[in-house]
Every structure is written in structure tokens, then in C-alpha cells.
Specification:
α2 runs antiparallel to α6. The chain is globular and about 45 Å long. An eight-stranded antiparallel sheet has the order 1-2-3-7-6-5-4-8. The protein is α+β, with helices and mostly antiparallel strands. The chain contains seven helices and eight strands; from the N terminus they run ααβααβββββαβααβ.
Length: 226
């Protein structure tokens, strides 16, 4: 007795399936998708303001594409800050940004992190030449290697002394920054930190208390003119 006939695929189904397979394989071998990077507006969990997006581009990749290591989402970082009144245990990197074509071992273009200042910790004030002070939060300053912004958040932290969150952005010296002046790096660093800090204060429910305005702050003076 002859075996049962296998139903034939509808006309055109096999060619379409083959074409689909070829496209999938081509995508796997072409280095597309994640390897091509993302645009600046997608970085740091998508919380960058238009000004901060422009600041990243000032620091950044010639082709406008970036690669990001999202170490900790803002919601998780907020829980860590609430639960630890100690800088060593609450230190949390929320985004690390590199140019898309850079190798994974290269220095990032910038890195943003937050800590819950512990008992006895003093916010780092501008004390060195080249540091520019800003009138935002409790203490804020920037220089060519990065920026620092501390803000009050008693309602958001709920416990711990002092009720203070410190945000910082580190801008390592790389070949990509070589053409920028120190002042340009400092402005870009503070613009990015202002944007992410405002988003963190909102996540912690202390935006009003934090005294971080919607607009990026203007520099007050350098530490030389204290």
C-alpha cells in the first residue's frame, strides 16, 4: 500500500521561506543591529534632554552612533539609594557611553553614577583651579574631566543621614576629546549630569526638594574667584 501523500506547500511559499532565511543569515553576518549603535537621544535610558543630547554629540562619535552599557536602570538605582546610606555600597553606574565603533576595552566617552552620601560625608565643593561652580542643587561644579551635583532628597530617601544624593559624570581624556577645550568638556559634562540628575530626582519623588530646574544651569564662577 502506498504511503500517504505529503501535502504540497502553496505556490510561492517555499521561495518566500528561502528568501526569509537568506535575509536572516545576512543580518547575522553583516554586523547590523546592536553593532551599529544607537542615536544619542536613546542613551541613559532615554532621559536626556535635547540640550544633553547635543552635549553628548559634542563629546562624541563622529558618525553620531553610540554604544551603551546600561549598568542599572533608574528605578533599580533609586531602590539602592534608598536602602543604603553609605557611599561605598550605594555607588551605582546608571549609564556608560562609548562610540559605537570603539572596542569594549576602550575608555567610555562618559559615565554617569549616583551615590547616597553616608553619615559624615561632605559634598565635594569646587576647590581646584579650573572648576566652575553652578547654582543648582546643594553643590554643583564641573571641570574638563567631569561634573558633580549633590541634591537634597529627604522625602525620597526616607532614611539615612544626610538625606543627600550625589551625582557625577566622568569624562575620560580620549582622542575624541582632544579637539575640545577644557571649558567645552566641562559644559557638556554638566549639561548631561543636570539632565540625568533631574530624572533621578523625579524617580525618587524629590524633584522640587532637589532644586534642579528644568533648564540647564548657567555657570557662576570658577573656584579661583571663590
Amino acid at each position: 500500500m502506498a504511503g500517504r501523500a505529503v501535502p504540497r506547500a502553496p505556490y510561492g511559499a517555499r521561495p518566500l521561506a528561502i528568501v526569509g532565511l537568506v535575509l536572516v543569515l545576512a543580518g547575522c553576518t553583516s554586523g547590523g543591529g546592536e553593532d551599529e549603535g544607537v542615536e544619542a537621544r536613546e542613551l541613559c535610558h532615554g532621559v536626556l534632554s535635547p540640550g544633553a543630547v547635543r552635549a553628548v554629540r559634542v563629546l562624541g562619535a563622529e558618525d553620531g552612533r553610540y554604544r551603551e552599557s546600561r549598568d542599572v536602570p533608574l528605578a533599580q538605582a533609586a531602590r539602592t539609594l534608598r536602602g543604603n546610606a553609605d557611599a561605598a555600597t550605594s555607588r551605582t553606574v546608571v549609564c556608560r557611553v562609548s562610540a559605537a565603533e570603539d572596542g569594549k576595552g576602550d575608555d567610555p566617552l562618559l559615565q554617569v553614577e549616583f551615590t547616597h552620601l553616608g553619615a559624615g560625608d561632605e559634598p565635594r565643593r569646587a576647590r581646584e583651579p579650573g572648576q566652575v561652580r553652578y547654582g543648582v542643587g546643594e553643590v554643583a561644579w564641573a571641570r574638563d574631566s567631569g561634573a558633580f551635583l549633590a541634591f537634597r532628597c529627604a522625602g525620597g530617601l526616607r532614611r539615612g543621614d544626610p538625606p543627600m544624593v550625589a551625582g557625577s559624570v566622568h569624562v575620560p581624556f580620549t582622542d575624541r576629546h582632544a579637539k575640545l577645550s577644557g571649558a567645552a568638556r566641562a559644559r557638556a559634562a554638566m549639561t548631561v549630569l543636570h539632565s540625568v540628575s533631574r530624572a533621578m530626582a523625579a524617580r525618587l519623588d524629590c524633584r522640587k526638594e532637589s532644586r534642579i530646574p528644568a533648564k540647564p544651569p548657567r555657570p557662576l564662577t570658577t573656584s579661583d574667584a571663590r
